[in-house]
Structures are given as C-alpha cells and as structure tokens.
Amino acid sequence: MNEFMLTNKFIKSFITKQNIVVHKQHIQNKIEKTNTNKKTDNLFWYMYNIIYPDTVIKNIFLEEKQIKFKWMEMINNDKKLCKKYKNIQPFLITHNNINLECVDAVCNLFNISLIIIYENTYVYLNKCNNIPIVTKYVNNNYIKNDEDYHYISNKYFYVDNYNKLYYSISHYKISELKVIAVKLGIDIPITHKKVDIYGEIKNKLKLIYLNI
Prior knowledge:
Elements: H1 8-17, H2 24-33, H3 42-51, H4 60-76, H5 79-84, H6 89-93, H7 100-109, E1 114-118, E2 121-125, E3 133-138, E4 141-144, H8 149-155, E5 157-158, H9 174-183, H10 194-208
Parallel strand pairs: 1-3, 2-5
Antiparallel strand pairs: 1-2, 3-4
C-alpha cells in the first residue's frame, strides 16, 4: 500500500507528529459523514480534471486527500521544486483549499502552462513554449475559456507575481498607472494625481485577489 494512502493508521501518525490528540472514532465519523459527491476545493478539482481527465472517482473526499499527499510527495522529491515552493505544504496537506502557489507548483510538476483570468487581471503560470490552458474564474468556479493570449494580454492587467500584486509607486510612471487603471476598469478623474491613481489600483487588486 502506498505510504500516503489515507488510512486510519496514517491519519493517526500524521496528527501525532503535529502534537494534536484526536480521538480515532472522531476521525472515522468525520470521514463517514463527508458528502462524497461534493467538491469544495474548486481550484484543486479543476487541476485534477486537467491532469487526470478520465479518472472515475468513487469517494471524492478520499481521492482529494490522497492526490494532495501524492503531489506533495512528488514535489518534495524534486529538489528544485521543493526549494522554490517550500511554503505550499500547509495548503496541500492541512488547509481545505489550495492556493495559487500550489497550482503554480503543480503546473511546473506536470509541465502545464496555465492562464487564469480573475476579473480584469490574469496570471500566467509556468510560462513556457507550451500552449497555455486558458481559464476564467467566475462565481467561485474555474471554467475553460477560448480567449487567445494576444487578446488577453491587451485587455487584462498582467499580475506577474501573485504574491506581490503591485510594486512600489516609484516603479511606475503616471502614464503606466493610467493604462493599468483602464485595464482594471477604474474611472480616473482628470484631477487625480499619481498617488491617487496608485491607491485606487492597489485597492482594486486587493479586492480581486482577497479570497483567492
């Protein structure tokens, strides 16, 4: 049996390592009560369907946990990826939902290029020679999109670092900030100064990526 299979023995050993005492029956009850037909981590399942498109799933809860452990193991076995994505383990192992950094790591692991459009912005994960899969985030769901990259790059604001949505104000010229504001759909009054435009851009980006 794979050492990362979600068995009672594994759950007990993992939780013990975290110095948390959890009753065995409580864990079993939680597994049994889980709705095995409900997918809650939408970003994870979007990536899952890209990587394993023809897999028949019998138990969503167990499959999600096992695959997350499997991905974490594969990333840890790759020294380059392990060093680059050293902060993702909590999101794959203990949190209910993965984040963009997890997806970035998985894209690199499986050599997938992925563009995700969030409102008036987009991120480009594992940008390389591969044709990117274009995805749009709508109402907490990730949906494949047919917009081409040229159209996307002209219409939307490119977030080149999802961990740092914007640079300091000195990084931008006022003309650049005005272009960004247009892409973000921000109406800028003529009287606005550079600091005002910058502030509105910061607030808009924070709102877009607040729950992502």
